Amino acid sequence: MDLITRHSFLHQLLLFSLISLSYVSGTQFSFPRLGALRRTIRSKPQTGSISSVSEDFETLFYNQTLDHFNYKPESFTIFPQRYIIDSKQWGGPNTISPILVYFGAEESLDYDLFGIGFLRDNAPRFKALQHRFYGKSVPFGSREAALRNASVRGYFTSAQAIADYAAIIIHIKKTFSAKNSPVIVIGGSYGGMLAAWFRLKYPHVALGALASSAPILYFDGLAPQVGYYAIVTKDFKETSERCYETIRKSWDEIDKIASKFNGLSILSKMFKTCKKLKRSFDLKDYLDSVYSEVAQYDCPPTYPLNIVCRGIDGAPKRTDILGRIFAGVVAYMGNKSCYDMEEFNHPTDETYMSWKWQIFRILVGLGSCFLTCSEMVMPIGHEHSASMFPPSPFNLNKFIRKCKSLFGVQPRPHWVTTYYGGHDLKLILHRFASNIIFSNGLRDPYSSGGVLENISDSVVAVYTVNGSHCLDLLPEMKTDPPWLIKQRKTEVRIIASWISKYYTDLIVFRDRT
Amino acid sequence: MDLITRHSFLHQLLLFSLISLSYVSGTQFSFPRLGALRRTIRSKPQTGSISSVSEDFETLFYNQTLDHFNYKPESFTIFPQRYIIDSKQWGGPNTISPILVYFGAEESLDYDLFGIGFLRDNAPRFKALQHRFYGKSVPFGSREAALRNASVRGYFTSAQAIADYAAIIIHIKKTFSAKNSPVIVIGGSYGGMLAAWFRLKYPHVALGALASSAPILYFDGLAPQVGYYAIVTKDFKETSERCYETIRKSWDEIDKIASKFNGLSILSKMFKTCKKLKRSFDLKDYLDSVYSEVAQYDCPPTYPLNIVCRGIDGAPKRTDILGRIFAGVVAYMGNKSCYDMEEFNHPTDETYMSWKWQIFRILVGLGSCFLTCSEMVMPIGHEHSASMFPPSPFNLNKFIRKCKSLFGVQPRPHWVTTYYGGHDLKLILHRFASNIIFSNGLRDPYSSGGVLENISDSVVAVYTVNGSHCLDLLPEMKTDPPWLIKQRKTEVRIIASWISKYYTDLIVFRDRT
Description:
The structure is a homodimer. By secondary structure, chain A is of the alpha/beta class. In chain A, 43% of the residues lie in helices and 10% in strands. Chain A has helices at 12-16, 22-25, 50-54, 109-115, 117-126, 143-148, 150-153, 158-175, 190-201, 227-239, 241-258, 263-270, 280-296, 304-313, 321-333, 355-374, 396-407, 415-419, 425-429, 482-509, and strands at 4-7, 58-65, 78-86, 99-103, 129-132, 183-188, 208-212, 436-441, 459-464. In chain A, helix 9 links the parallel strand 6 (183-188) and strand 7. The radius of gyration of chain A is 23 Å and the shape is globular. At the A-B interface, helix 7, helix 8, helix 18, helix 19 and helix 20 of A face helix 7, helix 8, helix 18, helix 19 and helix 20 of B.
């Protein structure tokens, strides 16, 4: 009796990957990924196949409206939006069994399917239908056409996305005769932001939200722009002071060699780059991505940040700084014939080697780039003096100019706080709003933009000191440390209490309203 | 220290008048007006001039975004949105003096300016800036061009309207250095719906809302479609059983005469119509509008419904049914050389006789019609057996067909409940949401779609048995009956308690968030 719903649909492209501002920023460091799910050690593919969890899934389509907010002739364009339902464990129609809905985030579908562990593990407990929606359907033909067309990609916005969610959930409740079933929405990272915002905007559709690793405060000056990299730095420093120092010193070393005659060739050889480096920045950006990724996804049982530092610290005694850095890369990325400096923008994992998939990833990057260039303007920069990274402050004006030249429209850096709020969160929401869990792991760099303090009795922060990005949403594993088990239990207990209160209310009010 | 804000701007056209479904429905009765402000006896213009209240007003402009929800190139079109501020009594910048914001409804500006009495009367008490915004500015040139262009009028939606409000209020708070000033939004009728929805969608912008006579439940089957006319009927019956009976019998009389040879000429003469009737329906629709209007605006001290019934009942002894009906019309509309059967669609009051204004009113009608033809689908019909009106049920399919042929787009009758909610209101909102007053007068036919029961401690219903449409928003008058004085006092006390709690919270949270 459990219902997990997950979707991507028109917005799948948004939901997938807030990859790489390097598309936009040229010489600004790549935007850290807001991926929901765990990155495994890159050299060792994740165990656990998707097929084993997907047998219960049923794929359905909903006729979705292109533009919910206007009444122009083209607003009425309908596209088939795919969603996935697992109703195997559900209590059935005309019961009040809960419905769990997963809001997709920005990772590959395979990762996403794997990542709904929390819902599947806890579904029987809540006696809920298991839904899950996602769709590959895009209006106006192919994804490529949609993203390349300025008029079409203009509909890729979070407000349209959650309006889609609302329409689909209402449709599902009607279809399943589940009018009185409480709906809990769950998402991680960008999906977590959508889940929290959904509870605020559509309380009549969702009873509550679990927003895992949702940096809803990383907008419009709410959180310091250095927050992200300050945590990456702290994670490294805590793991190994020596490793941290090596990385801190490495940037100057790279510059020093790059400035030599034939310096880029030397660096290219040293780091076994697949193509000769055209500028030292690309190497630095690659390393920045490695460090960010292992900090963000520093999960048990493998703890990839440890792996990188063991590589760096454990290199033979006389290895120089850049030799150690390369040893760290090899330890994490695996021993390869060459290393693709663009991998973090267009990954080349064996899983995604097909041409089609590559194109898809590129388009996902473009979609994500558009999203960050429109409303999801997260000013993440390096400028902290204690950072292990070289300074690279976020430059809003430059960012706006680049976005305008790329997409012809300019970002609205204040829109997220205008539409969803964020300033004075506790003051505003502690007498308004209810039933939101903001879960975080404090080793996740994005926790610097997360809600880490209880807002009220039912808008609460559940965090772990040792957790990383969206860890609580992953399936339970035998190797899970006690603090992770406890976090998930706390979340389940809180959600169960919302549902229990709702059932009480239902008895009181159902015949009177 | 009081702040009243009121606006219309791009959406002025929407906000003005949900006039006349007769544009749409052909032989369905005209849609009752959702006008915020009191209709006086038509033959005696309202006393009290606008100039006397408008001296303190300052007119300003805001560069408003055409489309908040999409990122298409045209979404970024900027138009100057006019708003009006009265800051004479305000506490000043860097204080925490409240800001009262009035959301315009669908009446002429003159009526609207008159109607902010509640805010002006209570402003000193709240020590608030007095704002008030309204703008005549419409993107893409003239109103006519905007409304005739399917692409432009498509942006006339409530979601865009309240996003505009949010942007302007945030802008005003910044301009006036009023970051911590609590904002109370106030509106009547359609403006009241916007105020209530605004508090739900933008709690970070408005601390609370006074939604006067806001029929937020007159959508999507929430309230019975006969509700409106059932109350009109009740109002007449309570005032005079004889008057009610005369009206009830009059429809058949009209049909009987109309079916005679030269019947329409007889009726035209009998009712001194300005143009010869082409069908009896137009007379019936006119009478329907008279009865609806006097019921909706049956206010002290004149009580126009009484005037109509005194006309009907007080006609010379041997006057027949239709003679009595006409006497009622004359009593209310005044003794005229002829009666314009289209007056309720395109009023010809002396005040609005200029050609320009006429054109404006027609366009307002078109704008309102578009609004009811897009999202504000209120299924108001006659089918009650105890009604004093002939049966005329609301036919959604016919309505949709007519809207499509008029505007090329079809209504979304479920959108209001999808975006704003409405089903199971108490169940949903009693643990979510706060600080909304739903005020109603039970003699107002629209109260049949209003919230008449407390939802929680701070989402409350304040109604009067004898009140009519938006009566509480009008300026205090010496002739106000005790129940009206009490209603306003209750509203003021509740709003004061929200602000007081907010100030307490501010001390607790301001330095911690």
